[in-house]
Specification:
Blueprint: E1 5-6, H1 11-16, E2 21-22, E3 26-31, H2 37-50, E4 55-59, H3 64-72, E5 83-85, H4 90-95, H5 111-123, E6 127-131, H6 143-159, E7 163-169, H7 177-182, E8 185-191, E9 197-204, E10 214-219, E11 222-226, E12 244-245, H8 250-255, E13 260-261, E14 265-270, H9 276-289, E15 294-298, H10 303-312, E16 324-328, H11 336-350, E17 354-358, H12 360-367, H13 372-385, E18 389-395, E19 416-425, E20 428-438, E21 448-453, E22 456-462, E23 466-467, E24 475-476
Parallel strand pairs: 3-7, 3-8, 4-5, 4-6, 6-7, 14-18, 14-19, 15-16, 15-17, 17-18
Antiparallel strand pairs: 1-2, 8-9, 9-10, 10-11, 12-13, 19-20, 20-21, 21-22, 23-24
Length: 482
């Protein structure tokens, strides 16, 4: 019989745990104050209520009224969660009461132990959350007694069919190594700089999990966990066949050796105003007309402006129905992890074939001060491994002068690099297009004039008689005599 699992109530954590918590085991959630330990446990209990399972919250620290007030604001079904409040009351201070959680005798139990056992037998919970277990430590006469009491309590709960989450406030002065040893699994929560949080599964006895650091956010609706793309298991890789898609412009198809291949990453680079977005829109339209679905993310321009601009140059995007979806992303409103997971959710919901990110610079704003390349690499390669085509639009800073492939050293990611560049000729500013590389096949190693007209993109014949365009110093050369 295979081991059952219980959902954590957080989809990202279930993914990391490869399906949820293995049943009838005990899991330690450790970390400093304010990192979301109690909230993680509340999601666990709320999921049990949702599944119709009996649950129990044993609170050693926060009063019941305070817990219910706080977590009802998160939209969790707190009313359906029984709370056994054994936190110290004001009478403890006024009357200087002292008590033991467990009786020193193996036969007699004190009133509190009786209260625990009575409640557990009455509810017979399938899920138990104990917060924080470290409070027991201060009530035990010695470390061994504490360890023995906790171990026996957890074994009792397991024998009763419960799956247990318990928390600890870990610190250098109050280590919890003993708790880590007796737990079947350990989940560590930590606050990093800039208000970022990281979750790490340190162990999960008898089960696989995705190792490493995974980012999470504390939101008004609880915890959102974002499994690291670079660490995700890839059992669900999508099988696909390469297919060449015509971009609908003869000269451009000639440059590309027939078109762009599905399942590849393409970088469209060039300075401001040269036509990168227009070319990306033409590519998305070609995908949609070929019976596939394109998802276009713009980080800079509003969607209405992009659609108007596309219409004005003969590339109407309306009428493509569900084959084309355009969305404006406000990068400062998302963390990099939230943005990546939004993209993945959109792909799943819309069954998308092509993803356009316009632009890399806009995406970098979501990353903030963190490194751009690891995030963009993980996203682009994850999409590619699952059969999606990717277009990355990159603005280079040099309008004229030395040729730059990309602004953020992202060219290594691309299977195909399409570059656009300005050319001054006879006191007129013109544009040229070329292909720098194409891993999937041959391409035309020439430069052609690139123009945006009212009827669409126009690609001229290969330029001859000019050299030095890439150096930024074009010169007229005489044709070789035959």
């Amino acid at each position: 019989m295979s081991e059952g699992r219980l959902s954590s109530g957080i989809s990202g954590l279930d993914h990391i745990l490869e399906g949820g918590y293995p049943e009838r085991k005990a899991y330690l959630v450790r970390g400093g104050p304010g990192v979301g330990k109690t909230t993680l446990g509340m999601h666990f209990l709320a999921e049990g209520v949702k599944q119709g399972q009996p649950v129990l919250f044993i609170s050693m620290e926060e009063p019941e009224a305070q817990l219910r007030s706080h977590y009802s604001a998160l939209g969790l079904p707190i009313d359906g969660i029984p709370i056994l409040d054994i936190s110290p009351t004001q009478e403890f201070f006024l009357k200087q009461e002292t008590y033991d959680i467990f009786s020193a005798s193996e036969v007699e139990r004190d009133l509190l132990t009786e209260q625990l056992i009575t409640t557990l037998k009455e509810i017979r919970p399938r899920r138990v959350f104990l917060d924080p277990v470290t409070q027991f430590r201060f009530l035990a006469s010695e470390p061994y007694q504490f360890w023995k009491q906790i171990l026996s309590f957890i074994r009792y709960l397991k024998d009763e069919g419960a799956t247990i989450l318990f928390t600890s406030e870990s610190s250098p002065t109050n280590p919890d190594d003993d708790l880590q040893f007796l737990a079947d699994g350990v989940i560590e929560l930590a606050r990093e700089k800039e208000g970022r949080y990281a979750l790490r599964v340190k162990k999960l006895r008898g089960s696989g999990f995705i190792p490493g650091d995974h980012r999470y956010e504390l939101t008004e609706r609880g915890i959102r966990i974002y499994p690291s793309l670079s660490l995700r298991r890839e059992e669900d890789l999508k099988e696909f066949e390469f297919r060449t898609i015509s971009l609908g412009i003869p000269g451009l198809d000639s440059l590309l050796g027939g078109g762009l291949e599905t399942g590849t990453i393409t970088l469209i680079s060039g300075p401001s105003g040269v036509g990168k977005t227009t070319l990306a829109l033409q590519t998305a339209r070609s995908w949609a007309q070929a019976g596939m679905r394109a998802l276009y993310y713009t980080f800079e321009e509003e969607t209405a402006m992009i659609l108007h601009r596309a219409r004005s140059v003969g590339i109407p995007m309306e009428g493509l129905n569900t084959s084309f979806y355009l969305e404006k992303i406000e990068p400062l409103a998302h963390s990099a992890e939230a943005l990546v997971n939004k993209i993945l959710d959109d792909l799943k919901e819309r069954n998308t074939d092509l993803v356009v990110i316009d632009s890399i610079r806009g995406y970098s704003l979501a990353v903030g001060e963190g490194p751009l390349l690891p995030s963009l690499h993980s996203l682009a390669k994850h999409l590619q491994r699952h059969g999606h085509s990717v277009i990355l639009v990159d603005e280079t800073s040099q309008v004229m002068g030395e040729f730059a492939i990309s602004s953020e050293h992202t060219s290594y990611l691309a299977d195909t690099i399409i570059f656009l560049k300005y050319l001054e000729r006879k006191s007129t500013i013109r544009k040229v297009i070329g292909i720098l590389k194409k891993r999937t096949g041959p391409f035309e190693a020439t430069l052609r004039e690139f123009a945006i007209t009212s009827s669409g993109i126009r690609i001229g014949e290969p330029l001859t008689g000019i050299e030095g365009i890439l150096r930024g110093i074009p010169t007229i050369v005489e044709e070789e005599q035959s």
